[in-house]
Amino acid sequence: MTIHDTETGKEINVTIERASMADFKLIKKNKEFGFNWEECKNKEVYKLCIVNDEKIQGLMCVFDHTDQYTNAIEIELLELRKENIGHDKKLDRVAGCLIAYACRESIKRGHGGYVFLYPKTSLINHYQSKYGFSYLPFGPKEAGTLNVDGDISRELIKEYLQ
Amino acid sequence: MKSYKEIEKKYTPKEIAESFVFPHDLNKVQREQSLDNFRKWRKENEAKRTVEGKLKIQLLQLKFLMEDYIQQMDYKKDYNFSYFLKEYIIRLEKKNKDFAGEINVDPTELSQIINKHRAPNEKFIIRLEIHSNKNFPAIMWFKLIEKEKVFQLEHDTKLRTSENKHVKSRLAFSL
């Protein structure tokens, strides 16, 4: 699993693991993330780090819908370290790796690769073109979901995790 | 806490989509209705999937379970080579006899391996790799066997006792 260093052009090996309680304290202290990740400390949160480096490059909070009808992983929150955002970001592919990891967990847990999230309206097209999500609109504004199924999950896993 | 409006001022929509997923702000009723909408889509989407597509996901699930188990430190008695081999055959919806024919092993040999009366040899795991079109590399099967052997070796006090008398001289210090 690799991300891309935009300065050197090199591919860098990374790991994705559950965030620990100690991680949440560090996240709060270092202020490299804008969201209040402390609120997620009792949820399922994953961190992406460069191998042998403790610095967290990206975070993702997921919810595992185990009921037989939803039967999917929901990405509730995702945020990259400040220096990895924007046109002069230091590292690329961080969010892609995290989303692909959610897809992998969905397959591994028997959800068939189904993953969804709730997008802001202005971002729908970008999630679609970047990651292959399909938009499922629903009545009130921003109640629609962006979804991937097993086929798209496999593609994302091949692209970002292999 | 950062708000979407503040983020919007700083970055383009493309940059935001490549860096964030935001929490929804639906109320309980909207949320449940939205989930119902997803469930309906999921059911319709799943009904359209091909047999091959479903098989690929089943096999990928097995592969990910194997990979993660191999990586883990702890040993699970039930997660052994024969369990994963059985699962591979079940997911392919094959009878043991037919699968044995496909990899040219005696059905009795396959049965002995599945029932843990016989250890698989290198030829066997290479044939598994070939049969899976390299989707399940031999090294993965080998690491499963190895993990089991490590556990057995670490816990074999009987063997240590019996071999102790064969060692005539030993180092006098611990490193």
Keywords:
heterodimer, A: 162 residues, alpha+beta, Aminopeptidase, nine-stranded mixed beta sheet, 4 helices, B: 175 residues, mainly alpha, 434 Repressor (Amino-terminal Domain), 65% helix, flat
CATH architecture heading of the domain at 57-70 and 79-147 in chain B: Orthogonal Bundle
Distance between the termini of chain A: 6 Å
Strand order of the largest sheet of chain A: 6-1-2-3-4-5-7-9-8
The SSE order of chain B reads HHEHHHHHHHH
Number of folding domains of chain A?
A: 1
Radius of gyration of chain A: 15 Å
Question: How would you characterize the overall build of this protein?
Answer:
The complex is a heterodimer of chains A (162) and B (175). A nine-stranded mixed beta sheet of chain A has the order 6-1-2-3-4-5-7-9-8. Helix content of chain A is 28%, strand content 31%. Chain A has a single domain, classed as Gcn5-related N-acetyltransferase (GNAT) (Aminopeptidase, 3-Layer(aba) Sandwich). Chain A is α+β, with helices and mostly antiparallel strands. In chain A, helix 2 crosses helix 4 (150-161). Chain A has helices at residues 21-30, 94-108, 124-131, 150-161, and strands spanning 2-5, 11-18, 44-50, 56-65, 72-80, 91-92, 115-117, 134-136, 145-148. Chain B is an all-alpha fold. Chain B contains ten helices and one strand; from the N terminus they run H-H-E-H-H-H-H-H-H-H-H. Chain B has a domain at 57-70 and 79-147: Orthogonal Bundle (434 Repressor (Amino-terminal Domain)). The relative contact order of chain B is 0.07. Chain B has helices at residues 4-10, 13-17, 28-47, 51-71, 81-91, 96-102, 107-114, 122-131, 138-154, 157-164; one strand at 20-21. Chains A and B meet through strand 5, helix 2, helix 3 and helix 4 of A and helix 1, helix 2, strand 1, helix 3 and helix 4 of B. Strand 5 (72-80) of chain A pairs antiparallel with strand 1 of chain B, so a sheet runs across the interface.
